[in-house]
Amino acid sequence: MDRYQRLRADYRLATPETFNFGTDIVDAWAADPVRNAAAPALIWCDAAGRERRYSFAEIAAWTDRLAAALERRGVGRGDRVMVMLPRIPAWQLAMVAVLKLGAIAIPCVTMLTAKDIDYRLLNSGAKVVITTVPEVEKFVTAPVETLRIAVDLPGAEPAAAPPEGWIAFDGLVEEPADGFRAATVRAEDPALIFYTSGSTGLPKGVTHASRALHAWRGSAEHWLDLGQDDVMFCTADTGWSKAGTSILFGPWSRGATVLFYDGPFDPQYRIELIARHGVSVYCAAATELRRLVALDIGGRTLPSLRLTVSAGESLNPPVLEAWKAMTGKPVLEAYGLTETLMLVANYRDTEVRPGAMGRSLPGVSLDLITSEGRLAVPGETGQIALRLPSAHLMLGYWQDPERTSSTRTMLDGQDYFLTGDNARADDDGYLFYEGRADDVINSAGYRIGPQEVENALIEHPMVREAAAVASPDEERGEVVKAFVVLHDGYEGSEMLARELQAFVKRLTAPYKYPRRIEFIAELPKNPVGKIQRRDLRLREFAAWQADPQTKCEENADDQSLQH
């Protein structure tokens, strides 16, 4: 029995009847004199060199005062609170204070436009908005009356008064708690709403119960492998669900210190931050790690770093190998989605198989359901389906029961949540991502997952990134088309396209090679950094519908097509 099997066999994490993250985690650590004195809960720093450390006791006291101030202004259980803040300590304070009240936090990225904000306010019926002074202009035409709280950015000149119609955040935090008592929150009470990027229509309000905040400590323990001596650095945006598991709920559930950096991405400075603050667990998106492996770190060592993790977009084998060669440490990938957070992961001290996103987390039971509606056998592609009930699963999409029900199915008497993602499993339960269910390319009867094509392309030394999608074809119905971004210094050509096609044929089944290749400067991505294949696919089909007679020029060998 390997470590993974022991973890699953020994796993015990029963959902409590009540759970308030603010009291059961933050206040509990604040009351622990050993942990509270050992290391800070939060290390905040920014690009200007400012730095501040916060203990759990400070976080507990300030969130009590903020929660009490909000309660005096009529905010309570079930009220929605929009928190649109950058990577500054006010984000943690606001999130925890909202949870202490039994209210529902809505973390949002600061890149939202006024139109984005209006939609979220109307859809959620938010009672409160908390944002920075520079962002208040986006709320000028907001269609909903809310309690509006403005945060001064660190280092900014203190405003003589908050903008008209806004309350100063700092003033609320300084008000006395006056015997504030946090709410008793039931496990099924809603606690969070994450709005998706809206890649398939209007953004969906993914609503999570308090039980999910409790369950997410599982990935912090078994994937992030966090303990009280760790310093966790995750570079996710505060509006992403990843920030919940790797910046707030996961690390603090385990008593770990969080490094929180507010500044632009600079590869060299990123390495410096990891070294300076003794980061032991580093979490970054695939795009970021691709940039970092191109560095020459000049013999710099990262003695504290023992684990790097990534999720949201698959890493290609050359990047994984380059990172391990550069740091001496592996990258452990994981898979999850906003509706569930992490479900699958690779684990410390267990075998990591090339191309695999890992095995299901302890406490998570998954099956693969084929397009024919049966359970897949090892090696066969199917949609990832989460067995229900599951503490990880969302309550549903906010005010959208029809869409919520569309994600559920039953097979052989078992209820499932359908993720919309395809995978195949080997005999040992390792899962290999095969793309979104609607990303599958059906070419002349062959069903082709884009991930394998992309992984093959990215192994070519000239290719930085690639996306494979379906492209309409008169003879085959669809063919594989690859959009390729080259490394600096290289230019696309018909000769290079043929070289890439031959390269892919050598690495995977010949029928999967991209019959069409287009070289582009940048792939479309959502705010989380995920490649938006759907945008590329829709563009292909729109061009075909506009001129069905338009054909792509065939290469001389009649084995590939290129626009």
List keywords for this structure.
29 strands, 4 domains, Rossmann fold, single chain, alpha/beta, 563 residues, five-stranded parallel β-sheet, globular, nine-stranded mixed β-sheet, Luciferase, domain 3, 25% strand, disordered C terminus
Fold and architecture overview:
With 563 residues, the protein is of the alpha/beta class. The protein folds into 4 domains: 15-213, 3-Layer(aba) Sandwich (Rossmann fold), CATH 3.40.50.12780; 216-364, ANL, N-terminal domain (Rossmann fold, 3-Layer(aba) Sandwich), CATH 3.40.50; 365-437, Luciferase, domain 3 (Roll), CATH 2.30.38; 440-562, GMP Synthetase, Chain A, domain 3 (2-Layer Sandwich), CATH 3.30.300.30. 29% of the residues lie in helices and 25% in strands. The protein has 17 helices and 29 strands. The strands form 7 sheets. It has a 9-stranded mixed beta sheet with strand order 2-1-11-10-12-13-14-15-16. A 5-stranded parallel beta sheet has the order 4-3-5-6-7. Helix 2 packs across helix 4, helix 2 packs across helix 5 (89-100) and helix 4 (56-72) crosses helix 5. The longest helix is centred in the first third of the chain and has 17 residues, at 56-72.
CATH architecture of the largest domain: 3-Layer(aba) Sandwich
Q: What quaternary form is this? A: single chain
* Spatial strand arrangement across the major sheet: 2-1-11-10-12-13-14-15-16
Overall SS class: alpha/beta
- Principal-axes geometry comes out as globular
CATH homologous superfamily assignment of the largest domain:
ANL, N-terminal domain
CATH class placement of the largest domain:
Alpha Beta
Mean pLDDT, to the nearest integer, reads: 89
* Beta-strand residue fraction: 25-35%
Radius of gyration: 24 Å
CATH topology of the largest domain: Rossmann fold
Given as residue ranges, the uncertain stretches (5+ residues, pLDDT < 50) are 550-563
Q: What is the straight-line distance between the termini?
A: 53 Å
Fraction of residues in helices? 25-40%
Characterize the largest beta sheet: strand count, sense, and whether it forms a barrel: 9 strands, mixed
Task: Tell me the number of strands.
Answer: 29
Number of domains: 4
